Every structure is written in structure tokens, then in C-alpha cells.
Amino acid sequence: MARVLQWFGWTMGVACVAIGLGHVALGNAAVPGIGPAGAAVDSLGRFLGAAFAGYGLAWIWAARQSPIPAAVVRWLAAVFLLGAAGRVLSLAVHGWPHGFQVGLLVVELIMPPLHFWLADADERARPSTKIIKGAE
Asked: pLDDT tens, 36-63?
């Protein structure tokens, strides 16, 4: 299970960095179904793309740790789930978005529970080797 967690972490990280940089580079054109949108939406999308790329870098950082810190995985998964909650709220207020965003919502609802479940897999597989004071 530790390997699965590491693979998920790397995959999340690389995907989020690529998606984020795509939004920085393409602006409104990176969003299927957005239609005509002005400079404010383009600016917001590019800014949030940079933040999403940073989020992806946090996943990559976590996946490179040994052991992968469960608390970090849980926080990152919670942020992803919060994004899904935002999409659900948007759906309730504005209706169904483009089908691509619906597909993203499905991924955003499935991945966090998997990450929560796997969060401590690496810590369980690699017991702590910290030296306890007084036990030398």
C-alpha cells in the first residue's frame, strides 16, 4: 500500500503542476465550455493556475519524503475535497457545467477518500527510527 500511496502522490503532483501551468499559459482557453470571458476571468484563471501548480509541487514534495507524512497527505486530500465541495456548490447555484467539469468533479470526489485511507500506509510500512532520549 505504501507504493500505491507514493504513486498516487507523484501522479497527483505531476497532474496538478501540468494542469496549473496549462491554465497559466492558456488562460480562458484552458477551460472547456467557458465561452466568451473577459480579462477578469482570464486573470483569475491564470492566478489560480499558478496556485494549483504550487499545490501539485506540495504533492510531489510529500511523495519524495521517507516515510510519506500522513498528516500532509490528509491536508492535501482535504484541500482537493474542498475543491469538489466548491464544484458541488456551483452546481447547486448555477446548474450543470460542461461535461468535462462533471468528470473532474467525479475524480475530485473519489480521490480524497482513497488518499485518506492510504495516508499512513508508508508510515506503517516504515517504523520510526528516531532515537528516544535516555534510551541510548
From this structure: 889 999 999 999 999 999 999 999 999 9
CA atoms of 120 and 87, how far apart (whole Å): 28
What is the pTM assigned to this prediction?
A: 0.86
Mean local confidence (pLDDT), 115-121: 92
Q: Is 130 a member of any domain?
A: no
> 133 lies in a domain?
no
Residue 132 lies in a domain: no
Residue 70 structural domain: 2-125
Cβ neighbours for 41, distance < 8 A, ≥ 6 positions apart: 28, 34
What is the Cβ-side half-sphere exposure of residue 5, based on CA atoms within 13 angstroms?
28
Give the chain's domain count: 1
Q: Tell me: pLDDT of 131 over 80.
A: no
**Spatial CA neighbour of 125 closest among 9, 2, 3:** 2
Per DSSP, the residues of 43-94 read HHHHHHHHHHHHHHHHHHHHHHSSSPPHHHHHHHHHHHHHHHHHHHHHHHHH
The yes-or-no verdict on residue 20 having pLDDT over 60 is: yes
